[in-house]
Amino acid sequence: MQKTLLIKLSIIAGLCVLFAIGLNMIGSVIYERQSYSESVIREIAQQHVNPQEVITPFIAIPTTVTPECEIKGSEATSNCAASYSKIETVFANQTQATQDLEVNTDTYKRGVYHATSYNGALKSDQNYTFDSTLISLNEPNNTNNQASDSVDTATNPFINKIKPEKTIIHWNKAKLIIPVSDLRGVATLPTVTIDNKSIQATYPQTPMLKELTYVEVAIPQDVLNRPAKPVASPQDNETLSGTGLTNQPSDTESTQAISIIVDLPLAGISNLNTVPTGQNFSLTMRSNWHAPNFIGKALPNAKKFTTKGFEANWQNQYLTVTNNQYLSHCIGSANNECAVTSQASLDTSSQSISRDDLIAVEGGTMPDSMRLSSFGVSFAEPNDVYLQTQRTMKYALLLILVSFGTFFLFEVIKSSRIHPIQYLLVGCALFVFYVLLLPLAEQIVFWKAYAIAASACVGLIGWYTYYVFGGVKRAAIFTVTLAGLYASFFGILTTEDMNLLLGAVFCFVLLACVMVMTRKIDWYKVA
Fold first, then answer.
1. CB burial class (10 A; 0-12, 13-18, 19+) of residue 264?
2. CB-based contact 274:202 (threshold 8 Å)
3. Which of 12, 171, 273, 519 gives the lowest tally of CB atoms within 10 Å of its CB?
């Protein structure tokens, strides 16, 4: 008698192992379909538009620097270093950025696969002043050396003299730089308003910044003239010669800030990153997407979710100041030796300034390229069909065990005789549920696919168990139990934050029910 029980349990265990192997094969199919979906999204990104990374606009001013040189004898025989070009950056004193985005999943499709895209407007309201830039560029260089050299040279023309460093600021080439990682997402060139004057941005004819994609706006000369404050230096006339910059006669005159408003239309897929620059930066993002994934080096300071979507606000002074320092160091390198790279990817892991870059800059050397710290939002679907199907698969073996266990209890308690082939057929019906679920979920909403696949399998098994048990009552009990299992598993899947806890409680309750039902069975007498 005990030998018969042992053989039956061994057959049930063997069937469970067999179905576990089959479930593993279905898992590989899910992974394959998921990989193919990701490859389709990458193809869409290559052919249409990538995820976007936007650097806060800043002003770039080309300069030409002639290094300090020691003249031996005469200038004709001296061996002085050649002049080199560099770019001075002017960051906004205050930036209020706003991003209004419409997100949908219908724009880019390939069969049953699609990419989550966004389309909207980015607005930056900025204020600039040039005082600190003028003071740093116009500081007197080696004035005392010049005076002594002129005396010494007058008495002895063969004594070496020092030719001070000379900086020429090309104000007529000052540009407002608006970096966007993929300009294919900018359908129309943005409109920039500088002190209530609208100017259309253009693509750079000769890019000042290598490896950085951007559009630019030439700063009007009258705007540059107005905020200039005089700097008491004998080199002012030389440094500012030919620039068109007019010094005001009074030191007491206050500097008026330049107001620059940038309206940038932008489209992209999957995620949007923002690189903050300036002194006081704040960002507000509004979107109709209900399940954002905040990514990057900073989370929002405040966020609000409504029936229409979400609104989030960022303000991180540390990241902003750090970006200012390393952006100005990199762009201001001699002859543009360092390049700022800006490129978002489908991978939502944050990319930022590397430790090697920080050590190089702090040590006085300049890396070939540098990435800045950013933050933003990923619009990828939080529970796509493949993730939900994989989570459903985790309860598959438990579902089969419970079904086989129910069959076995009917054999023990109700003295029903069930052949191993009947166990196999019921297990196959349970197995087919997962075969149906994935292709249905790729076509329709997941909960509908789950309901259709579960109803089909429960109905088939309920009809079959009517003949196995030889009665309506027992078949109805088994069918209701099976339907309850499917409903319970779906309820656990939909509670993302508590699914592990609910799953553990469910297993405990299930075990308790089995122990209560079998508490009076004498297993030594079971045939």
1. buried
2. no
3. 519
